[in-house]
């Protein structure tokens, strides 16, 4: 089945094909504050679902975009970033990506290039943004322009998970972009996957017919 | 909150968490020594901290003490049980901004995160704060190039 690429049996990633479901992934080094950002955005809604076997944390959120209700699943890494790359299922069917670095640690900024490259290997076209976190530690950083992602036209946000600056704005804009992307997917792979899945379904229907025929054909012999 | 935590520390022998707190009704400052039981050099500091934070007899007093601070104190306690000095424990919390934290194991990373959490907690705006704004937006106007972008070749 096409969804076997998902590889996580507990998580049926097929649901992300439904119109009212989007999947947004977070990328970035250890301790840049990815979970803290989620916590700040979700507040009372914050109920992380730990899937420690997969070094993965899921957060569910219900958003309103336009006049539609959208169920958003945020995927966070829970230490998987230590393996230098994420399992392909992490990227599978994602509709947007939030890339985070820590303004106090240059290495986390430099590593964005690696994260971005891996993201684009799997998801060449999904909306993505660059998030500079922990600006509360030193507000002077907000006077500097960080050029990573500029060439690719990625939106850039100065945020602080601690005092809340621009956290909600960033998440809301990314949810909207994920929904827009889903309406109009430009990833060639999405279409291929969709085609494969349709093909798969048709085949299955054929098979089940065949099985029935087979049974019918066999039963007289059995009797 | 009936009790305002003022300071929270650790005592090695017998192992205990020491809390200085102020009773809100009487304004009296008192000391509470909370024994740390069933905790050995092999125990999990995070579980132990959580257990203490939710302990029916102590949780009201510990409301103002963060989980991460309790974790840090348990780490210091466990280091001591393993024969490490207090200096060693404190040094392990220190952050080197150039260090690649992706390369640390869970325990080492928790120590660094503990340090970061201190800054986070200092600057944190909670939803109970009177001037809390959920959707806090701010525009920034950049004036200069960031030095981190120099010597860049890899797609920056």
TrEMBL record, chain A:
<keyword id="KW-0342">GTP-binding</keyword>
<dbReference type="GO" id="GO:0005525">
    <property type="term" value="F:GTP binding"/>
</dbReference>
<dbReference type="GO" id="GO:0003924">
    <property type="term" value="F:GTPase activity"/>
</dbReference>
<dbReference type="InterPro" id="IPR027417">
    <property type="entry name" value="P-loop_NTPase"/>
</dbReference>
<dbReference type="Pfam" id="PF00071">
    <property type="entry name" value="Ras"/>
</dbReference>
<keyword id="KW-0547">Nucleotide-binding</keyword>
<dbReference type="InterPro" id="IPR005225">
    <property type="entry name" value="Small_GTP-bd"/>
</dbReference>
<dbReference type="GO" id="GO:0005929">
    <property type="term" value="C:cilium"/>
</dbReference>
<dbReference type="GO" id="GO:0060271">
    <property type="term" value="P:cilium assembly"/>
</dbReference>
<feature type="region of interest" description="Disordered">
    <location>
        <begin position="200"/>
        <end position="223"/>
    </location>
</feature>
<comment type="similarity">
    <text>Belongs to the small GTPase superfamily. Rab family.</text>
</comment>
<protein>
    <submittedName>
        <fullName>RAB, member of RAS oncogene family-like 2</fullName>
    </submittedName>
</protein>
<dbReference type="InterPro" id="IPR001806">
    <property type="entry name" value="Small_GTPase"/>
</dbReference>
<dbReference type="GO" id="GO:0007018">
    <property type="term" value="P:microtubule-based movement"/>
</dbReference>
UniProtKB/TrEMBL annotation, chain B:
<dbReference type="GO" id="GO:0034454">
    <property type="term" value="P:microtubule anchoring at centrosome"/>
</dbReference>
<dbReference type="Pfam" id="PF14933">
    <property type="entry name" value="CEP19"/>
</dbReference>
<dbReference type="GO" id="GO:0036064">
    <property type="term" value="C:ciliary basal body"/>
</dbReference>
<keyword id="KW-0963">Cytoplasm</keyword>
<keyword id="KW-0969">Cilium</keyword>
<comment type="similarity">
    <text>Belongs to the CEP19 family.</text>
</comment>
<dbReference type="GO" id="GO:0005813">
    <property type="term" value="C:centrosome"/>
</dbReference>
<dbReference type="GO" id="GO:0000922">
    <property type="term" value="C:spindle pole"/>
</dbReference>
<keyword id="KW-0966">Cell projection</keyword>
<dbReference type="InterPro" id="IPR029412">
    <property type="entry name" value="CEP19"/>
</dbReference>
<dbReference type="GO" id="GO:0097712">
    <property type="term" value="P:vesicle targeting, trans-Golgi to periciliary membrane compartment"/>
</dbReference>
<keyword id="KW-0970">Cilium biogenesis/degradation</keyword>
<dbReference type="GO" id="GO:0005814">
    <property type="term" value="C:centriole"/>
</dbReference>
<keyword id="KW-0206">Cytoskeleton</keyword>
<protein>
    <recommendedName>
        <fullName>Centrosomal protein of 19 kDa</fullName>
    </recommendedName>
</protein>
């Amino acid at each position: 089945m096409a969804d076997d690429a998902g590889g996580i049996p507990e998580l049926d990633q097929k649901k992300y094909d439904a119109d009212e479901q989007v999947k947004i992934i977070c990328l970035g080094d250890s301790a840049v504050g990815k979970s803290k950002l989620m916590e700040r955005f979700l507040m009372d809604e914050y109920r992380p679902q730990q899937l420690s076997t997969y070094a993965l944390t899921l957060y569910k959120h219900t958003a309103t975009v336009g006049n539609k209700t959208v169920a958003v699943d945020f995927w966070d890494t829970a230490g998987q970033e230590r393996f230098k790359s994420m399992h392909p299922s992490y990227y599978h069917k994602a509709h947007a990506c939030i890339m985070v670095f820590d303004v106090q640690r240059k290495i986390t900024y430099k590593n964005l290039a690696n994260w971005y490259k891996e993201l684009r290997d799997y998801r060449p076209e999904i909306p993505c943004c660059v998030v500079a976190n922990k600006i509360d530690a030193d507000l002077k950083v907000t006077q500097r322009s960080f050029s990573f992602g500029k060439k690719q036209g990625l939106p850039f946000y100065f945020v602080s998970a601690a005092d809340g600056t621009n956290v909600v704005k960033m998440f809301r804009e990314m949810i909207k972009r994920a929904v827009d992307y889903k309406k109009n997917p430009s990833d060639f792979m999405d279409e291929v996957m969709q085609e494969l899945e349709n093909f798969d379904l048709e085949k299955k229907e054929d098979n089940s017919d065949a099985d029935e025929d087979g049974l019918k054909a066999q039963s007289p012999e059995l009797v | 909150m009936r009790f305002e935590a003022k300071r929270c520390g650790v005592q090695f022998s017998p192992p205990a968490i020491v809390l200085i707190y102020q009773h809100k009704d009487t304004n009296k400052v008192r000391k509470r020594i909370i024994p740390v039981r069933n905790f050995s050099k092999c125990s999990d500091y995070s579980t132990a901290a959580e257990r203490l934070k939710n302990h029916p007899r102590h949780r009201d007093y510990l409301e103002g003490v963060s989980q991460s601070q309790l974790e840090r104190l348990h780490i210091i306690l466990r280091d001591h049980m393993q024969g490490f000095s207090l200096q060693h424990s404190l040094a392990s919390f220190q952050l080197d901004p150039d260090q690649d934290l992706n390369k640390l194991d869970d325990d080492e990373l928790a120590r660094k995160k503990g340090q970061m959490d201190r800054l986070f907690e200092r600057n944190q705006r909670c939803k109970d704060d009177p001037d809390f704004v959920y959707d806090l937006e701010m525009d920034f106007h950049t004036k200069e190039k960031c030095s981190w972008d120099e010597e860049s070749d890899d797609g920056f």
